[in-house]
Amino acid sequence: MGIADTLTARFDVEQHGSDLRTELVAGLTTFLAMSYIIVVNPAILSEAIRIEGYGQGEVFQMIAIATILSAAIATAVMALYANRPFGLAPGLGLNAFFAYTVVIALEIPWQTALAAVFVEGILFMALTAVGAREYVIRLFPEPVKRSVGAGIGLFLLFIGFQELQIVVPDEATLVTLGGVFGNPWAILGLVGLVLTFVLWARNVTGAIVIGIVTTSIAGWGLTFAGLFERGVVTPESLPSAQYDITPLAGAFVDGLADVEPLTFALVVFTFFFVDFFDTAGTLIGVSQFGDFLDDEGDLPEMDKPLMADAVGTTAGAMLGTSTVTTFIESSTGVEEGGRTGLTALVVALLFLASLAVIPLVAAIPAYASFIALIVVGVMMLQGLVEVDWDDPAWAVSAGLTVTVMPFAYSIADGLAAGIIAYPIIKVAIGELDDVRLGQYLIAALLVVYYVLQTRGVIL
After folding, report:
1. Residue 397 domain-assigned?
2. What is the share, in percent, of the chain residues with pLDDT greater than 70?
């Protein structure tokens, strides 16, 4: 039996309606879509992490290595243990909270913040092992589970439009159409987006990968031809690899040694809350898109991908990075046909390979990477057809889930809005018996959390 046959058998590829080539392409697609995190995560965290005797550029490289290793570990667990095509890495939003709120604003040492992430990961591992996380997620109302994919799609669209500078900030209306055709960045992104949509519409395998690579090559070609200076449509400089991360890895131990109990508990709780609902929303949304959900809208054996997420968070904190979570960009690989852990294994191996070619990975302009978000965002809107819009409880719950995500810039907040709305409308129309006790309890706890959070009582 050859390597190909061994891999196909190990991941039950044929039983999942896929094949080796499709899984490989899907893994490459997911990696390219989420590879920006290798640069973006250290760019954010290096604002807060300062290591004596090392410059910010050196710290940047340490965090980049920690980012790659934590992503590879978590995604490998997803592949080999859960057999799901999901990629994991340090999450956007959570890293910004880590850097700008916890370390910079609250002046909590970065080592202590890493300790909070480590504790969060341990808690998640324990709760996942006893089935508590899966139980809570199964309590999510069905309209929320059926609409979360479309909500994530709109969120992806919003992020993609901003990154391509097609949509820009506006003082009067918050956002508005940017000066697209006066902006080389936006023009290249838009041309790449059109190319990718055309390829996808013609059922070209690897359409998203081709779009990303072609757009990147176009940007570099125009730069080398002298039409633009470095830094306009290509990165201004490419970092060299910094492989010694010993000053960063293990720093969480020092953080555990000196904590203020109340503040530390609040930081842990906030990381815990946002990661719990972000992960739940991503898993359900991507699973809905890949047709992995059962008739009740649940992901079979959900405890396994949840455990991969928990292991990744714990390992990431030990290595020196913020919370690791399942990436919504996994949808790109699922769209390419990825259905098994072989897709995730390819992602993990490509992350490891990027240790040797960090400058090459960093050479992909952001506008090329974010093309994938817009393409997949449009595709994920198909989940809206699964919502019973004639049922008031479904309409309100699903409608809020879908719209709050992009408007609040948070998967967690969108889920919470739908979860809270469902029992309220059910009671209003006299169908309170349709709501389970656990659903009332989760809604009540979320109300308490948001009252305290929006009043500034908790982080």
Report:
1. yes
2. 97
Q: What single letter denotes the amino acid at residue 407?
A: F
Residue 459 within any structural domain of the chain = no
Reference 209, options 7, 41, 21; nearest CA is: 21
Residue 76 has pLDDT above 80, yes or no: yes
434-440 long-range contacts, Cβ below 8 Å, gap at least 24?
A: 436/139, 438/135, 438/136, 438/139, 439/139, 439/141
Q: Name the domain count of the chain.
A: 1
Write the DSSP assignment of 164-226 as a string of letters. Answer: TTSEEEETTTEEEE--GGG-HHHHHHHHHHHHHHHHHHTT-TTHHHHHHHHHHHHHHHHHHTT
pLDDT at 112 over 90: yes
73: Cβ contacts below 8 Å, ≥ 6 apart: 311, 312, 315, 348
In one letter, which amino acid is 158? F
The predicted model gives 256-261 an average pLDDT of 79
Q: Which sign does the torsion angle of CA 177, 182, 183, 188 carry?
A: positive
Q: Which domain holds residue 294?
A: 3-454
Q: Which residues contact 99 (CB under 8 A, 6 or more apart)?
A: 44, 45, 47, 48, 49, 322
Beta strand pairing status for 88-90 and 174-177?
unpaired
Q: Which residues contact 48 (CB under 8 A, 6 or more apart)?
A: 98, 99, 100, 102, 103, 104, 110, 113
Distance of CA 171 to the CA centre of its chain: 28
| Residue 228 maps to a domain | yes
Q: Going by C-beta distance under 8 Å and a sequence separation of 6 or more, which residues neighbour residue 244? A: 62
| Residue, of 383 and 240, whose pLDDT is higher | 383
* Spatial CA neighbour of 212 closest among 191, 183, 187, 235: 191
Q: Map tokens 């519409």 to a residue.
A: 201
DSSP string across 417-435: HHHHHHHHHHHHTT-GGGS
- pLDDT tens across 130-144, in order? 988 888 888 889 898
Closest CA to 364 of 188, 245, 194: 188
Q: Amino acid identity of 400?
A: L
Q: Shortest CA distance to 274 belongs to which of 459, 118, 49, 407?
A: 459
Within a domain: 198: yes
Q: Strand, coil or helix: what is 90?
A: strand
